[in-house]
Amino acid sequence: MSTYEAVIGLEVHVELKTQSKLFCGCSTEFGQEPNTQVCPVCLGLPGSTGVLNKKVVELAVKAGLALNCQIGLTTWFDRKNYYYPDLPKGYQISQVFRPIAAEGYLDIEVDGRPKRIHITRAHLEEDPGKLVHSGGSITTSHSSCVDYNRSGIPLIEIVSEPEIRSGAEAKAYLEKLKAILEYTGVSDVKMEQGSLRCDANVSVRPAGTTALGTKTEIKNMNSFRAVQRAIEYEVARQMAVLEDGDAVIQETRGWDENKGITLAMRNKENPDYRCFIDPELPHIQLTPEWIEEVKATLPELPDARRKRLMEEHGLPAYDAGIITSSLALSEFFAATLEKFPDAKLISNWMMGELLRLLNAQAMELSEAKVTPDGLAKLLELIKKGTISNKIGKEVFELMFKEGKEPEEIVKEKGLVQISDAGQLTQILTEVIARNPKSMEDFQAGKEQAIGFLVGQVMKATKGQANPGVVNTMLREILTKG
């Protein structure tokens, strides 16, 4: 057992889902040509002034409420001064002294154990530009270009208390946070596009103590799995440093996904950002009535929906947790349930076949060609006995790949289940003749022998025989002897 414990806090930067930037009308659309969505305001040119985007404030309040935060009635913007090529003004507009939301929490569960992670603050700020490196990362590049399209895009930075103790807890926290932000429509939370980015502050301390150790900040993590791996590596690295009698250096480190290690980027001892209230931007004044109006627009959040699926539809906690883990899965389930009222069966197919194929193809649900209506029709065919469950899985794969209706696939492939006794009698007779030992075993009281014979019939009919009918007919034939 280690004599040290990890102490981790996360800073999550979330791009808010607006069509224009924080202080100007430039588009926030992703993937456009570099430096084509800029103006004097977001480029920070001298003499340029902007106007606050009201939608940004609304989304930030919505996020804060969904994260159980207190919303500040009077807030303002501050200047955080530092130099970096992607920051044309020489300072970042942020909320250092008075965040729009604070003192919240988020509940997670790891290995069946619940835990509450407190949220220190959720504050508004503008995104800087983006450095486009010549190599794979900043540490392996000889040059970088700057794209200012992202400059001025509205962010909310969500800062947790240092209460996370492992990479697994960090991953669970991020997954829950992503789901909440997605459900509320605050952000599209697409990590691959940079609309959700995470930095991890990691330190270790002797087990049983309360003082924080010297922390490092890990950047450049592009997936939740990367966050978990980076934290696990950094914790082990810091423990090894301390066990060797050395001191951990406060610094910013980058995560190298290929090597699976963190690398020193720059020293961060006692940074001084010389923050002060922005003199050119007015304070934000909110009213309790307006905050209540925003609160009324909150949808059913993941935990509430999970509870409802368990109570109203009888889903096990695990199933309900998987289904509600993303808005897309939850909506797919709900749409299917409207057409085929068997929640557990739908859940089984989504967690089994749908997620299996999505994971195998590394696809998002939005990219799959199968629809809730298609799944409902497929389950109806199985329920009616038109096709077997095994054939249903084959049909589902074709629906997933081609987007065709299940009835069309069944007709094209000639997959209708054989339930007619006349058609099955000859097949059963031949199977029994080829397996006399199984017939003798069944007649001697060995019940498992019937299962083998049913399997042989299913094999002979390429899965199209109705297994229930086959089982009944076999018993009749074998009993008569």
Descriptive labels:
alpha+beta; elongated; 40% helix; three-stranded antiparallel sheet; 481 residues; 3 domains; 16 strands; Arc Repressor Mutant, subunit A; nine-stranded mixed sheet
In a nutshell, what does this entry contain?
The chain is α+β, with helices and mostly antiparallel strands. It has 15 helices and 16 strands.
| Number of separate domains | 3
Straight-line N-to-C gap: 66 Å
In the sheet with the most strands, the strands line up as 2-6-7-10-1-11-12-13-14
Discrete helix count: 15
The share of residues in extended strands comes to 15-25%
Global geometry: elongated
3D structure, described in words:
The protein is of the alpha+beta class and 481 residues long. It folds into 3 domains: 4-291, no CATH class; 300-413, no CATH class; 421-480, Arc Repressor Mutant, subunit A (Orthogonal Bundle), CATH 1.10.10. Helix content is 40%, strand content 20%. The chain contains 15 helices and 16 strands. The protein has helices at 54-66, 167-184, 224-243, 288-295, 302-313, 317-323, 327-339, 343-361, 372-384, 389-402, 406-413, 421-434, 436-443, 448-460, 467-480; strands spanning 4-15, 70-71, 74-75, 78-81, 91-94, 101-110, 113-126, 130-133, 144-147, 154-160, 196-206, 216-221, 251-256, 261-267, 276-277, 284-285. The strands form 4 sheets. Strands 2-6-7-10-1-11-12-13-14 form a 9-stranded mixed β-sheet. α6 packs across α8 (343-361) and α14 (448-460) crosses α15 (467-480). The longest helix is centred in the middle third of the chain and has 20 residues, at 224-243. The termini are far apart. 34% of the residues are buried. The model has no long low-confidence stretch (mean pLDDT 92).
